Amino acid sequence: MTLKGKTAIITGSNSGIGLGVARELARAGADVVLNSFTDRDEDHKLAADLAEEFDVVARYIKADMSKPEECRALITHAGACDILVNNAGIQHVAPIEDFPTEKWDAIIAINLSSAFHTTAVALPLMRKAGWGRVVNIASAHGLTASPYKSAYIAAKHGIVGLSKTVALETAKEPITCNAICPGYVLTPLVESQIPDTAKKYGMTEEEAKQKVILERQPSKEFATVEQIGGTAVFLCSDAAEQITGTTISVDGGWTAL
């Protein structure tokens, strides 16, 4: 599988799942555009390191995914978009009656509305190029629910629905749109939470992983960012040409329960 000659834009990709997906797309030969809301030297260095490691063109473009005009400008600024990975997301946990309105608005904007805005600008570029792939990073919470995560779950369910609509609107074209639904993924952010979780529950770190963090993941193993990236690469492959408007769960059996 080679993606040489393709340009991939990955939102929220200076760490975690987004960076993992960008690395795997670059490994497959795609030129990549990294993104986040910061504009630090280390952000641009991430792109430079990818370019050197995989011999591709890699750039970093600052854009705040909470702002519609910046979402759209990201695609325009990139100049080409054969592969769009909508990954940017944030989280907040609280009961509905205590859920801050500003947190709800921010989560819906970043986790859901940003994908609408980027896709709206990317699709004409894909049509002009005669090929395109939209890969939305949803979540197991795009297919099921948990308490206290109302905004996140509403947004991720929305991403699944948006993916289906985009797939239907492009069904007769060489463009596909799908959603990847990860369970718990071992990102630096999650890894940093393990010691505190263990301390809170008076457990060893391994017990905290198995009994608390991975409670709902039957495999009792984290997915990796490389696995999520590999799934994205597969969805860009010829083998996935007729896979559109669906979800692929990478959740260790979570949604099989």
Structure description:
This protein is globular. 46% of the residues are buried. Helix 1 packs across helix 8 (225-235) and helix 6 crosses helix 7 (205-213). It has helices at 16-27, 41-54, 68-78, 101-129, 150-169, 188-201, 205-213, 225-235, and strands at residues 7-10, 31-36, 58-62, 83-86, 132-137, 175-182, 247-250. It has a 7-stranded parallel beta sheet, with helices on both faces. The two termini are 33 Å apart. It is 47% helix and 14% strand. The model has no long low-confidence stretch (mean pLDDT 97). The protein is an alpha/beta fold and 257 residues long. It has 2 domains: 7-185 and 223-250, NAD(P)-binding Rossmann-like Domain (Rossmann fold, 3-Layer(aba) Sandwich), CATH 3.40.50.720; 186-221.
Instruction: Determine the oligomeric state from the structure.
Output: single chain
What pattern of helices and strands is seen along the backbone? EHEHEHEHEHEHHHE
Q: How much helix is in the residues?
A: 40-55%
Q: Strand-residue fraction?
A: 5-15%
The total domain count is: 2
Tally of DSSP helical segments:
8
Rounded to the nearest angstrom, the radius of gyration is 18 Å
Please report the first level of CATH classification, the CATH class of the largest domain: Alpha Beta
Measure the end-to-end span: 33 Å
- The CATH topology of the largest domain is Rossmann fold
The largest pleated sheet is described as: 7 strands, parallel
**CATH homologous superfamily of the largest domain - what is it?**
NAD(P)-binding Rossmann-like Domain
**What integer is the average pLDDT?**
97
Family: Belongs to the short-chain dehydrogenases/reductases (SDR) family.
Keywords: Oxidoreductase
Protein name: 3-hydroxybutyrate dehydrogenase
Enzyme class: oxidoreductase
